[in-house]
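Good morning C.,

I know you're traveling, so I'll keep this short. The sequence:
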Amino acid sequence: MSLLRVSGLYKRFGGLTATDGVELDIEPGELHAVIGPNGAGKTTLINQLSGELAPDAGTIAFEGRDITALTVHQRALAGFSRSYQITSVFPEFTALQNVMLAAQAHAGHSFRFWRPVAGEAALIETARAALEQVGLSHRTDVEVAALAHGEHRQLEIAMTLATAPKLLLLDEPMAGMGQHESEAMIALLAGLKGRYGIILVEHDMDAVFALADRISVLVYGRVIACDVPAAIRGNAEVREAYLGDEAVAA
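The tokens, ready to paste straight into the viewer:
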């Protein structure tokens, strides 16, 4: 059974069809990349998958259950966790505190209970484990304002992992990174691959082709191809619509 199955998904904004009959299947443990030019509808698609935007038609099934009508929070409880193109963290808190807050919010506690909950061993253990997964165990007590850009992105992924996800929706995790930071992020995602289902929306083609099990190419809201990386590289329609010279780069 697929972890996620998207069938006939449509979304229109006035005369613009942003999602045009999208079909998508994600297998357990698969890293599935979604690529396409600017304006292709990638963020609109991810917003529908996460529950932030209701589709006009179509269904979204997670582990065989129709979740099309579920809220963002209900999907999070089911096992969805999303990171955003722009990192959202509390800069005045430490890395550990940020991850603890994410775990606390997922458990349904209000932030006003921060002080009494902060001492709970289970919450601290969950946060430390998530930071270790992303390579930030040595930065637990550092205020987020003092972290580098790449470390911010690592921290945001740690915050998603602290919610015990089954599926990660990662929106441009390498945005704004230099070469060294991008290489570190690729290594991090490679370590998570197989342990979680991952949908990766990314413009860095080196990362996409290094990481993806399969790639879906979105153009004007429509999936024009879905295949393994080697087949996507050699697909003439994809090359013309998006990849260009990148398709022949080995």
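Safe travels,
E.
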